[in-house]
Design brief:
Length: about 325
């Protein structure tokens, strides 16, 4: 019988998450069952287990937002997929299980390549893409600045910006990350601090920095905003500190700096057609399969060690330098 991680209620993973055997999944007419190869674990997954708003879903449930696998069973009305096809299952379909049942229309074709890397495609990849494309008209040679540059999304953004010819100022919290991100393609890598704006202006030689990207929140949001040219946007896509974003009123009033929250799903719904979304995913998948987009992996765990994986994913900084992945 296939196994699944099942969350019985809200709380610490050690208290509410168990790996159990369940009957084999059977697809409805418009569904497929995917035999999973790998599933990425995000902080958002831990928050769904804890029941933190807005990540509170009905229980019992299986967590897991994304992953990759092969079609195992096909519903009678499904024509575009067949048994054996490699796919990315529907987003948020509970991927911490050996068999995932989901709508066939929501699955996307997956290329050949490393399952561990490809398991991260459907969340961090499009987030990096919409951050780069949707909040400033960036041309070759323009500058953006981002914090949390060592995150998977930050690393993807460095590579995507470089392919477009956009230059990046990358802000980190640990000096030992500077050389690594430079080797990845970051034009400038700075350690965060109260004088960030002065140092950023110096390294870009006074050129306008046209976009700020923030995943830290708290006072870090203000430091990113202080680096920007008048009329620019700070795009916030996370809160590593679990704090509110701080932005001084007078900076907004005098410099027309604006703060926006970013959801790649919302950007898909408001700025892209379904065909455009699929084309984006196909492009990102190709880049990932060719090694152009590479995430740093902190650990790979089998499903039976999911509690250890949760503990590792909850760590920060040098205690978890990369993503955690469940491998089946």
């Amino acid at each position: 019988m296939p196994r699944a991680a099942v969350q019985s209620s809200y709380g610490s993973p050690v208290d509410v998450l168990r790996v159990v055997e369940l009957p084999a999944e059977q697809p409805a007419d418009d569904e497929v069952v995917v035999r999973m190869e790998a599933a990425a674990m995000h902080i958002a997954d831990l928050r769904t287990i804890q029941g933190v708003e807005p990540f509170r879903f009905p229980v019992p449930r299986t967590p897991g937002f994304e992953g990759i696998g092969h079609v195992l069973r096909v519903g009678s009305a499904v024509r575009h997929l067949k048994v054996g096809d490699r796919v990315f299952p529907a987003l948020a379909s509970g991927t911490f299980r050996e068999e995932v049942r989901c709508k066939a229309a929501a699955c996307m074709p997956a290329p050949e390549g490393d399952a561990i890397q490809l398991s991260l495609l459907t969340v961090n990849g499009p987030t990096a893409e919409v951050l780069l494309e949707d909040f400033a008209d960036l041309q070759r040679g323009d500058w953006l600045i981002q914090n949390a540059a060592n995150s998977s999304c930050g690393r993807y953004l460095i590579r995507l910006a470089r392919l477009k010819g956009v230059r990046t100022v990358n802000v980190v919290r640990r000096a030992e990350m500077v050389d690594e991100l430079r080797e990845l393609g970051g034009d400038v890598v700075l350690v965060d601090g109260p004088d960030l704006a002065a140092r950023a202006r110096e390294v870009v030689q006074g050129a306008p920095i046209k976009l700020g990207i923030d995943a830290v929140a708290g006072p870090a949001t203000q430091r990113i905003a202080e680096c920007l040219a008048p009329g620019s946007i700070v795009a916030s896509y996370g809160s590593m500190t679990s704090q509110r974003c701080e932005l001084d009123f007078y900076l907004m009033f005098r410099q027309d700096i604006r703060l926006v929250g970013v959801s790649f799903a919302r950007q898909f719904a408001t700025r892209r057609t379904p065909e455009g979304v699929r084309a984006m995913y196909a492009r990102l998948a190709d880049l990932m399969s060719r090694g152009e987009l590479v995430a740093k992996i902190a650990g790979v765990y089998p499903l039976e060690r999911i509690l250890e994986a949760c503990d590792r994913a909850a760590c920060t900084g040098s205690d978890r330098d990369g993503k955690v992945v469940i491998a089946f």
